[in-house]
Structures are given as C-alpha cells and as structure tokens.
Design goal:
The protein is an alpha+beta fold. The chain has helices spanning about 70-85, 100-105, 140-145, and strands at about 10-15, 20, 30-35, 45-55, 55-65, 120, 130-135, 150. It is built from three helices and eight strands; from the N terminus they run E-E-E-E-E-H-H-E-E-H-E. Helices cover about 20% and strands about 25% of the residues. It has one domain (about 5-150): Pseudouridine synthase. A hairpin with an 8-residue loop joins strand 6 (about 120) and strand 7. Strands 1, 4, 5 and 8 form a four-stranded antiparallel sheet that branches. A two-stranded antiparallel sheet has the order 2-3. It has a two-stranded antiparallel sheet with strand order 6-7.
C-alpha cells in the first residue's frame, strides 16, 4: 500500500461496511464504496515490511479477508490509509480507486496492481478437511520489492 503506517496501526481488524454500485461506471466496471448502510465486511491485517523509493513510503501488508465483498481489500486498505492520515491512499497500481496521477507514478516501478493471493484455504461443501493452496509472489512483484529500500524509522 502507499504510505507508512504508524506504530499503533501496524496490525488490526478493519470492518468498514461496503456497498456495491447498482450500475457500472463509464467503462462498464462495477465499483464499491464504504457506506454505513453497506454490507458488513471484515479484514484482518498486519504489516510485514515498510519500504521507501524516490521519497515515497510503501507498506507490505498481510491481509486475511473473512467476508469477501467486491473490492474489499482495495477499499479497506484505502480506508486504513485515510484513518492513518496518509496523503496517498490505496494499493500500488490500483487502476480503479487511485487518482490517475498516482496510477501513472506507480507504473514507473510496478506494472500491475500490487495484490497477490499467497494463500487460499476453504472447506468444500460436504467435506470436513480444508483445501489449502499456497503460492509465492510472482516474478514481477518480487522484482518490485527488490527495487525498493527497506525502511525502519
């Protein structure tokens, strides 16, 4: 995500309610928004590492979603950044929710949304044993991380 999270926000639970728009935007995409009348959404998070690149700060988060609403991770991270008082708010490369200028800046070092499902776990219907699928970072995200400087205040 964009920015550095202060110590008191290094881990926690996000429960911002989310509402999906009733109709698509001009490009035919459905977007969502934080709305007190929206559906309950829960995300647990913790900071893995913080980085710096060209005067900007970034934070690598581990996220665990418990509900799975449309764009839940994107919106919860954006709201976390707002709560932290960060100027830039959202996931690196987020072409739906970041302002165009920030998207263009992100493309200078990351050509996609920096979002990756490292672990999926679920219990199939009618089964007792969970299915667990793990996958390391794809090469392009590993390259991005190697290009950043680790930051520790």
């Amino acid at each position: 995500m964009h920015g550095y999270l202060p110590q008191h926000l290094q881990s926690g639970k996000l429960t911002y309610p989310l509402q999906q728009e009733a109709s698509p935007d001009a490009q035919g995409r459905y977007i969502s928004r934080v709305d007190p009348k929206g559906q309950y959404a829960e995300t647990h998070y913790k900071v893995i590492r913080s980085y710096r690149w060209r005067g900007q700060y970034y934070t690598l988060l581990e996220l665990r979603i418990l509900t799975g609403r449309t764009h839940q991770i994107r919106l919860h991270v954006r709201e976390l950044a707002r709560e932290a008082g960060l100027e830039r708010r959202g996931l690196v490369g987020d072409y739906l929710y970041l302002p165009r200028k920030e998207q263009d800046e992100d493309r200078k070092f990351c050509n996609r949304v920096f979002l990756h499902a490292r672990l999926l776990q679920f219990v199939p219907h009618g089964d007792e044993d969970p299915v667990r699928i793990e996958c390391g970072y794809p090469a392009e995200l590993t390259t991005v991380l190697r290009g950043l400087t680790e930051y520790s205040p």
